[in-house]
Specification:
- The chain has 359 residues and is an alpha+beta fold.
- It folds into two domains: 135 residues, no CATH class; 168 residues, Histidine kinase-like ATPase, C-terminal domain (Heat Shock Protein 90, 2-Layer Sandwich), CATH 3.30.565.
- Helix content is 62%, strand content 12%.
- It has nine helices and seven strands.
- A five-stranded mixed sheet has the order 2-4-5-7-6, with helices on one face.
- Strand 4 and strand 5 form a beta hairpin.
- Helix 4 packs across helix 5.
- The longest helix is centred in the middle third of the chain and has 74 residues.
- The two termini are 32 Å apart.
Length: 359
């Protein structure tokens, strides 16, 4: 028996002791030395206990949860309650008869008539037993709902983990192929820079190998990842592209973020934000105060046509999915083009970094 089961057993025992106490404590002084009357008075909480567990373990699971046969459930409860209520009434009559045999005469207000006995049967005993049945039913249905909700949450977590794994599998090959294409282009005109690019790529791959398979990485590692990528891209692009990188994060290295999200936006900026001939720019800003994270990119807008598949990546839809899976509703993503349609902007604000503090 685990700790939870032990606690439930102790809790149930405590509750039934509380229910039984009035039957033992509030006993008229004239019959306090009659053990038979004590035992009879304890039959009332005993009947309540029987009705409770009869509903909890049998009637509710069989006729409400499994078969949805509420009529049988109600009928069986009514029959049991009437039988127990009649038994209690007979026991109370026996107590009065025992008291009278001992020489006690009840005062006028305590003398039973047929009508008062019937009212006692319905009001005192029947309602108490019905209350016990209702409480048992509600508790059992609440337990069923709790189990169903727990199973639903487990399925949602499994689905989320599967989707995250699928996203990682999409992102890593894409990033690797893009970077190798960049180095291949660099080898033809500057081997020294190509060697430096290979070292940068090695650092990137190391971070991708050990970082993207986690639920969270430090913001410092993610910032270094972006810096390596930007440095790698600087080698390839022409001088007419201006790149600014502004990173301001806490030095304590205790802020975590879901991997891959930010670098995907950086890739998107290099895909759509530079031109081989026209002047262009990319501005990247990463800020965190320890409580929230802000990541903003602004770049010149050179959208590719539908037939151009170079640098084809995971797209913004997958980034949105990644954000939703990792941060639920604790983030904001604003993106679009300005009124001139020459500048594209994208800003992600994560309001609760603790959601990814589960490395």
């Amino acid at each position: 028996m685990n700790k939870k089961s032990t606690f439930l057993v102790i809790f149930h025992l405590f509750c039934w002791i509380i229910v039984a106490l009035p039957s033992v404590i509030f006993v008229p002084q004239r019959i306090q030395h009659d053990i038979v009357i004590y035992l009879i008075r304890l039959c009332f909480p005993a009947f309540m206990c029987i009705i409770f567990y009869l509903n909890y373990f049998w009637l509710v699971p069989r006729y409400i949860i499994s078969n949805h046969r509420k009529n049988i459930y109600i009928l069986v409860n009514v029959i049991i309650i009437i039988i127990f209520a009649m038994c209690m009434q007979e026991m109370m009559d026996y107590i009065h008869a025992r008291e009278m045999a001992a020489g006690w005469t009840p005062p006028p207000h305590e003398r039973f008539t047929k009508m008062s006995a019937l009212l006692a049967l319905i009001l005192r005993n029947g309602f108490s037993f019905a209350f016990s049945a209702v409480v048992a039913t509600l508790l059992r249905l609440a337990m069923k709902w709790q189990k169903a909700e727990s199973a639903r949450r487990d399925m949602e977590i499994q689905k989320t983990e599967a989707e995250l794994k699928n996203l990682r599998n999409q992102i890593n090959p894409h990033f690797l192929l893009n970077t190798l294409n960049n180095i291949y282009a660099l080898i033809s005109f500057d081997q020294t820079k190509a060697q430096k690019a290979v070292l940068s790529l090695s650092a990137l791959l190391r971070q991708m190998l050990y970082g993207t398979q986690k639920n969270a990485v430090t913001l410092k590692d993610e910032a270094e990842f972006i810096t390596h990528y930007v440095d790698l891209m600087r080698i390839r692009i022409s001088e007419n592209v201006k790149i600014t990188l502004d990173i301001s994060i806490p030095p304590q290295n205790n802020v975590y973020i879901a991997p891959v999200i930010l670098i995907s936006l950086v890739e998107n900026a290099f895909k759509h934000g530079i031109s081989p001939t026209a002047s262009s720019f990319i501005s990247i800003r990463l800020f965190s105060d320890g409580e929230k994270i802000e990541f903003e990119i602004r770049n010149s807008n050179f959208p590719k046509n539908d037939t151009d598949k170079s640098g084809h990546g995971i797209g913004l839809k997958q980034v949105a999915t990644r954000l939703a899976l990792a941060y639920k509703d604790k983030y904001e993503w604003v993106k679009g083009v300005d009124e001139t349609e020459k500048i594209y902007y994208s800003k992600i604000t994560i309001y609760d970094t603790k959601l990814c503090d589960n490395r």
